[in-house]
Write a structure and sequence with these properties.
Strand content: 15-25%
Bound molecules: S-adenosylmethionine
Number of helices: 7
Order of helices and strands: HEHEHEHHEHEHEE
CATH architecture: 3-Layer(aba) Sandwich
CATH superfamily: Vaccinia Virus protein VP39
Distance between the termini: 42 Å
Largest sheet: 7 strands, mixed
Number of domains: 1
Mean pLDDT: 94
Length: 222
């Protein structure tokens, strides 16, 4: 297991508390999650919130082994019927960065002491699976008002995945970014702060590598 994936959202984490509060205050129409890992972290937290009132929930995981593990873990926990797990890459394959395009200097990254700190990130998404799952899920007929989008993929993919999701999104939604004080979503947060007309920051929390909850309201500009 790579180091960054050991950091799932546990039941007593600040993020778990914020997720509970968010569901108490909102009625979401659909959940899309990027980065299932073993299913015991954020995926389970969302399942627990929709147990009594299920809504469509899609969780994307590129790693075939983790995808299988998540199936098994969620089945054991009695949560499997609440989520559709998809073994795929969130973005089109041509958006995957080349090694020389990865900039680890902007914020904390996971493998700083490794001899080749970019290679684990490249390996993390190197699976021959379906790509552009977000593109499929955001087809015009599928997207609904008030969805919840949770972005927690590979460190070097956060900003790319965020931009891609925003380029597809046409309707109001709530976005949770994990690892905002980390290369994963450092740039995404800079972008959000620079565009207050379409993004409202609901919560910024420094827990672990930071997370943020944001309302996206694109109709004001599109
Ligand atoms: C930080 S872990 C996710 C942790 C999980 N959300 C939790 O709370 O336990 C990141 C996961 O995203 C997967 N991943 C990375 N990049 C991805 C991508 N572009 N599309 C789909 N899955 C991706 C990795 O294989 C890894 O399992």
């Amino acid at each position: 297991m790579s180091k960054q994936c050991g950091m799932g959202i546990n039941k007593d984490d600040a993020m778990a508390e914020s997720i509970k509060k968010l569901f108490a205050e909102n009625r979401f129409s659909r959940i899309i999650e990027c980065g299932t890992f073993n299913g015991l972290g954020s995926t389970s937290r969302f399942c627990e919130q929709i147990k009594d009132n299920p809504i469509p929930f899609f969780s994307i995981e590129v790693n075939t082994f983790y995808y299988a593990m998540a199936h098994q873990n969620l089945r054991k926990a009695g949560l499997k019927n609440l989520v559709t797990l998809i073994n795929g890459l969130s973005v089109p394959r041509n958006l995957l960065p080349k090694k020389e395009e990865i900039d680890l200097s902007i914020a904390y990254s996971d493998f700083m002491n490794a001899e080749d700190p970019k290679q684990p990130y490249l390996d993390e998404v190197d699976f021959n699976v379906l790509d552009d799952v977000l593109g499929e899920l955001y087809q015009t007929d599928y997207e609904q008002e008030n969805e919840l989008l949770f972005l927690d993929s590979a460190g070097h993919m956060g900003w790319i995945e965020f931009q891609y999701a925003i380029s597809l999104a046409r309707k109001n939604k709530t976005i949770i970014l994990d690892d905002t004080n980390h290369i994963k979503h450092f740039k995404s947060m800079q972008h959000i702060r620079q565009h207050p007309k379409i993004f409202t920051i609901i919560e910024e929390n420094p827990d672990r590598h930071g997370f943020a909850i944001i309302k996206y309201h694109p109709e004001q500009t599109k």
